[in-house]
Design brief:
The structure is a single chain. Helices cover 42% and strands 18% of the residues. The protein has helices at 13-17, 29-43, 61-72, 86-97, 115-125, 145-155, 201-206, 217-227, 236-252, 254-274, 300-309, 335-349, and strands at residues 2-3, 52-58, 78-83, 101-106, 129-133, 135-136, 141-142, 158-162, 179-183, 194-200, 279-280, 289-293, 312-313, 315-316, 324-328. It has a seven-stranded mixed β-sheet with strand order 2-10-9-8-5-3-4, sandwiched between helices. It has a four-stranded antiparallel β-sheet with strand order 11-12-15-14, covered by helices on one side. A two-stranded parallel ribbon has the order 1-13. The model has no long low-confidence stretch (mean pLDDT 98). Bound molecules: pyridoxal-5'-phosphate. Pyridoxal-5'-phosphate is lined by residues 6-7, 60-62, 87, 133, 137, 162, 164-165, 183.
Length: 350
């Protein structure tokens, strides 16, 4: 099955097989070495920083976002969330649940961020932290993290970025983002179950404010540093797969992975337009995911069933009130797979 949903993405056979190992207690030294190799390997795909560290967490990407936000902010802190999609809204939910003091900058889900208005907003609100999504999976918008980071520096705020669908494809710098958050099952092409926060050690050591036993970035980091273990049972097989996925990304190289995804995305956008589909966003889109307007005559469930029959899983839209579907072109797939999908789609509409 070719997965055209925005993760979990297709994995290579070697990543799948890496999970099939002799039973092992994760508190054994050999497993600590696997986790150490993962924590170090994840750092190779980000730039900048000072003594950067990756904190491995057991759970899907949302868990790491919740862990980072709730660990970094104290009651006296103020958070500004930039919201232009469902994942920005999820950050608002996290801030609410944790009773944090936050304000939101709301922006259209299909339009590029207006950096001047954001600057005005941030200069007025003076938050201690700014949280945003790098690649908004809701629409495919790629938010301008460098511009936000420059404003953050002006006001002395720290940046928390959900890089779930940009990490391991785009270059991201710890000189621009203080907390980079991602997970094992998107561009890195591993199995679901592990998420992580990458930050300078000093920032992690300051992030001990969570009112949760489990979601505590600083505690998890300190325990790992002294034992090479997670505090609680890790997803052993997912970690073996992630270790292999990191090796494969190192072999392919971040630049070439970006180029492959871009080739997939360019072919996809062109093919969809040739078939007469209206695609979004029109501007500031990344190379990860595309939102496509569905004519009233096409029912998503019928289209989904047709594509699935021929081996392609497509994904529903996520913007309330708009009849859309989405195609992600990430994972262990190539332009050949995209071309195959376009043929199946053409077959359905003709
Ligand atoms: C996938 C994704 C997440 C995490 O979703 P989970 O279901 O918790 O893995 C968070 N943010 C963005 C932008 C994503 O694409």
């Amino acid at each position: 099955m070719t997965l055209l949903n925005p993760g979990p993405a297709n994995t290579t056979l070697s990543v799948k097989l890496a999970q099939v190992v002799e039973d092992i207690c994760p508190r054994e030294k050999e497993f600590g070495e696997v986790m150490e190799s993962i924590a170090n390997g994840l750092l190779e795909f980000v730039q900048g920083g000072e003594n950067p560290k990756a904190v491995l967490l057991s759970g899907s990407g949302t868990l790491a976002v919740e862990c980072a936000i709730s660990s970094a902010l104290r009651e006296t802190h103020k958070l500004a969330i930039i919201v232009n999609g469902a994942y920005g809204q999820r950050m608002e939910e996290i801030a609410s649940v944790h009773g944090l003091n936050f304000v939101s900058f709301k922006s259209d889900f299909l339009q590029p961020l207006d950096i001047n208005s954001i600057r005005e907003f941030l200069l007025r609100e003076r938050p201690d932290f700014i949280a945003l999504i790098h690649s908004e999976t809701t629409s495919g918008l790629l938010n301008d993290i460098s511009a936000i980071s420059r404003i953050a520096k002006e006001i002395g705020a720290k940046v928390i970025a959900d890089c779930m669908s940009s990490y391991a494809c785009y270059e991201i710098s710890l000189d621009e983002v203080d907390f980079i958050i991602a997970s094992s099952n998107k561009n890195i092409q591993g199995m679901p179950g592990v998420s992580f926060v990458i930050a300078n050690e000093a920032n992690i050591l300051e992030a001990g404010n969570a009112k949760s036993l489990y979601l505590n970035l600083k505690a998890e980091y300190e325990y790992f540093k002294s034992t090479l273990q997670m505090r609680f049972t890790p997803p052993v097989q997912t970690l073996y797969a992630l270790n292999q996925a990191i090796i494969e990304l190192k072999n392919e190289g971040l630049k070439r992975r970006f180029e492959r995804y871009k080739a997939n995305n360019t072919l996809l956008r062109q093919g969809l337009q040739d078939l007469g589909f209206e695609i979004y966003p029109k501007d500031s889109f990344g190379v990860i995911i595309t939102a496509i307007a569905l004519p009233d005559s096409i029912d998503f469930h019928c289209l989904h069933a047709h594509c699935k029959k021929y081996g392609y899983t497509i994904y529903p839209g996520k913007i309330a009130g708009l009849h859309m579907f989405r195609i992600a072109n990430i994972g262990a797939i190539t332009p050949n797979d995209i071309a195959g999908f376009l043929r199946v789609l053409k077959d359905f509409i003709s």
